[in-house]
Amino acid sequence: MKKGLRLFSMLFVAIMTVLLISACSSGGEVSVGIVLPTKDEPRWVQDEERFKEALEDSDYTTEILFSQGSSAKEKENIETLINKGIDVLIVAPHDAGAAGAGVELAKEEGITVISYDRLITDTDAVDYYVTFDSIAVGEAQGQYLIDNAEGTGNPLYLYAGAASDNNAFLFFEGAWNVLQPKIADGTFVIANSSEAEALQDKAELTRDELGKILGQVTTEWDPNEAKNKAQTHLTAVGADLKGDVSILAPNDGTARSIADVFASDGEVTNYVVTGQDAEKASIQYVIDGKQSMTVFKDVRTLVEDAMGMAVDVLDGDTPETTGSYDNGSIDVKAKQTDVIVVDQENVQSELIDSGYYEADEFEGLD
């Protein structure tokens, strides 16, 4: 009797163990893995929420991990998601080149890789790229400065994103496309970059030439770095490079920091400063006249495009693309989303009426 009871107990334990392992295995599987660069910028937290909402009504599951500005953490996150059985990997890389090591591991497992917002470079392990037109972003910023400049000799302060981010090159290239003719004809005078000054008569810059300029004016996408650089630049110049100034700031976080520095200098009588991402804090700055504009990239559309691609892959369909980008190794098929310039004149129509933000989130909005 005791022997029979013991055999029954052992069989019961064995069955429960198998069921538990099976449950854990199926519960741990994820359809789409997403890796975002940092949780310290409002832009990426906003993207996280949009991604979660995108798959709410589907049978597919997703897990979102943040790299917190570390390439090593990014690779670890990708490995974690691979082990969870993902079929599609979406990555907004912290470092465009370093991200290749992680996505190559995914490709070895037959996982479809989608580069999100920032292009992963120097690897053939990228299947698709979902992006805003980064050249158009820079062109919109540069054109805004041109449209708001009067006469000649306007001091122009140039700032850029991180040199590790391919988008930083594209944004600056776009701005240079429209600003360079106006630098060459004397509308603007470069105030803070000897490298840009040396190249001011050249309409098209090589990657190396862009890199030299970015090396001088990079903010690393860090508001504190942007603040320090702006303070250093204003301290180094005389009154002839102050007065009414034009400032190319790469995104909203850096724009607010740079604007605060220029606003505090008594010899700066007026400034026009660009931005990007339509962050809530910067929209308040735009309303208050502290930041001139921002390039609105509707994250809702970008997320929809990325998740639409992922679902197509999961369903066995071929995702729709609208162009391609050379990542230094292959031409990556891409889907592009348009961008919109927002300033005081159209905050209401573009951001409130469209439902992107609520009016009661801001003060002083007419």
UniProtKB/TrEMBL annotation:
Keywords for the protein's UniProt record, in alphabetical order: Signal, Sugar transport, Transport
Pfam assignment, any one: Peripla_BP_4
GO cellular component, as recorded: outer membrane-bounded periplasmic space
Chief place of localization: other
InterPro entries attached to this UniProt entry: Bact_Solute-Bind_Prot2, Peripla_BP_I, SBP_2_dom
SUPFAM superfamilies hit by this protein: Periplasmic binding protein-like I (SSF53822)
Signal peptide: none
Record-linked PANTHER family: D-XYLOSE-BINDING PERIPLASMIC PROTEIN
Name of the protein: Putative multiple sugar transport system substrate-binding protein
